[in-house]
Amino acid sequence: MRKHYCSLAALLLLCGAAPSLAASDVCKDTEINILMETVPDTVAVSNIKSEFEKAYNTKVNIEAINYSLMHEKLVPSLSASSGHYNVLVVDSYWVGEFKTAGWIAELDELIARDKIDTGVYIPALMELNGRVQGKTYMLPFWHYAMGVLYRKDIVDAPAFREAYKKQFGKDWEFPKTLEEFAEVAKWAGKQENMHGMAMAGQRADPVVMEATNYLFSVGGDFYDRATWKSTMGNPEAAKAVNIYADLLKNAAQPGALGANFDDVANTLKQGKAIFAISYLFLFPTLQDKKDSLVVDKMMFEPLPGKESFLGAWGWAIPSNAPNKECSWEFLKWVESKDAAYKRALDGGQPTQAWIYEDSKFLEAWPMMRKVGYAVDHSKGLPIMSRSTQLVETFAEVLGTVLADGAKSEDTLAESVSKFDRLVKGDPLLK
Known about the structure:
Blueprint: H1 8-14, E1 31-37, H2 40-46, H3 49-56, E2 59-65, H4 67-79, E3 88-91, H5 95-101, H6 108-113, H7 123-129, E4 131-132, E5 135-136, E6 139-143, E7 146-151, H8 152-155, H9 158-168, H10 178-192, E8 195-197, H11 205-217, H12 235-250, H13 261-269, E9 273-279, H14 283-286, E10 298-301, E11 308-309, E12 312-316, H15 324-334, H16 337-345, H17 359-364, H18 371-376, E13 378-379, H19 387-402, H20 408-423
Parallel strand pairs: 1-2, 8-9, 11-13
Antiparallel strand pairs: 3-12, 4-5, 6-12, 7-9, 7-10
Helix pairs in contact: 10-12, 11-12, 19-20
């Protein structure tokens, strides 16, 4: 894992002790409203929010809903003269839209005033969900690094290793390329009489988040990020879509074309699939002894190939928040050393680098040992004003190929002009 060190003094500045009672006056007679996604990190915040409520004599209202509903619910509030939400959690591919629309407040003056050192964060996450064009608008909250979730009990079994050697003529090692991985996943499903893959092909976000891994793995991208000309007509894009389509047809669980990440988690929890190219944040669900059959049987491996997809969420203050000082106190508290560490131990996905070197954390979540490598070999969607439209456009391409059976090369070639239009005149890409 790449080392991201910060001085102890800097760490204590960011991660200081609980606020004094005097500081709590800024939240007096105020409630904090936050809209969040139904994921383990939201649960981790909910489990400790009473500490802030007690220290600041206030109430934190967390409204947790399905991701697909969040954007449409946030936009009317953010567009109003006075909004309902005091704190925002911003998905990485909303960053460009929210910044361009002026919906999130710049934090640099507050950071300087309170001597907050953002150097404790993994740099890639700070660039993805922290700064935009050199100014800070967010503090990274949690990431959704992706890679291969797999059944270690099956893959490590001598019988599997022997069968693999007989099939492929070599000793077992984790595949080095996406093409090799796809062949192994198809073979393993037949070998074990299971689904080789658990997949999420639902439009728009699930299939795009999943398939973007395939695109990045084979060296493709949506654009040449120097010229901002679309590269979706290149051979790499067709290769990625073809591999994805092949696995969806020949290795995935029934109904995968309409599945989301909850369905992937359920397929894995029920012990019905060997592999998934999916989110690390699913592990707390897979470790839930109440309804998972794969407790302590799953492990994580970085995606084979060149790069994987990296997404993240950041804490932000709405520009129309009624009490920005109280909102800022919440951001400082929730990203304090104590709160961030408690969230991590509770199954959250930490953004502060020091946590990944903590022995207690790694003992509780051993699959997180390879997160540093995964983050260092990943990238996010471009920070652009029309990133939501980018996702919709790629989802349209994938739907045409996966559902309608169109040839990927032709569909992708036709999409190039659509992708080019999305970046035309974008102020964030100058």
